[in-house]
Design goal:
By secondary structure, the chain is α+β, with helices and mostly antiparallel strands. It is built from four helices and six strands; from the N terminus they run H-H-E-E-E-H-E-H-E-E. The chain has a single domain (about 1-130), classed as Aminopeptidase, CATH 3.40.630.30. The protein has helices spanning about 1-20, 25-35, 80-90, 105-115, and strands at about 40-45, 50-55, 60-70, 95-100, 115-120, 125-130. The site of coenzyme A (COA) has 18 residues, from helix 1, strand 3, helix 3 and helix 4.
């Protein structure tokens, strides 16, 4: 739990700040309320915890709820390597993959490269989807 909170602050604080401002009490509370261990996988490399992945399997889609990698390990292709088998798994189930990303977050460009397109938006987020038939896997 301590690792996940530190990871959340290290990876998301800047984007949250630019979107709503960072309220530490609200963020801690929200983090604990939405903690869903049965859907989480801790990503490790060389025996060290380096990130987290959260997916939810629904009858009509697979939801990529969270992917975060420690800043010191970002931009080395790890995110791509983690997402690719999720897309393959969804493809084998003939399900689209959906996610939402803050508008200020450059992760959107990675998702676009992997075949996701924006299907709708709110004031703060883009909702993205990738159909199971997409050939492009990134
Ligand atoms: C999104 C994330 C999981 C991608 O993992 P990664 O291992 O860095 O990804 P890769 O090395 O495979 O791909 C890098 C791409 O991610 C995108 N990207 C995401 N966040 C980025 C950042 N902070 N800075 C630069 N590029 C970023 C870029 O498109 C980049 O491609 P580029 O090098 O051609 O510009 C990782 O950057 C991360 O943990 N970010 C913070 C948490 C987050 O935003 N999670 C997604 C919430 S929807």
């Amino acid at each position: 739990m301590a690792f996940l909170w530190e990871l959340h602050v290290a990876t998301m604080r800047g984007y949250v700040e630019r979107t709503w401002g960072w309220d530490e009490t609200f963020q801690r509370d929200h983090f604990h309320k939405t903690f869903s261990p049965e859907h989480l996988r801790i990503l490790t490399c060389g025996g060290r915890d380096i990130g987290v992945l959260e997916t939810h399997l629904h009858p009509d889609h697979l939801f990529l709820a969270r992917i975060s990698i420690l800043p010191s390990r970002q931009n080395r292709g790890i995110g791509t390597r983690i997402i690719r088998p999720i897309l393959q798994d969804a493809g084998e189930r003939n399900l689209p993959v959906r996610l939402q990303v803050l508008k200020v977050n450059p992760a959107r460009f990675l998702y676009e490269r992997m075949g996701f397109t924006t299907c709708s938006e709110t004031t703060t987020h883009f909702m993205m989807t990738r159909p199971p038939s997409s050939v492009k896997i990134g």
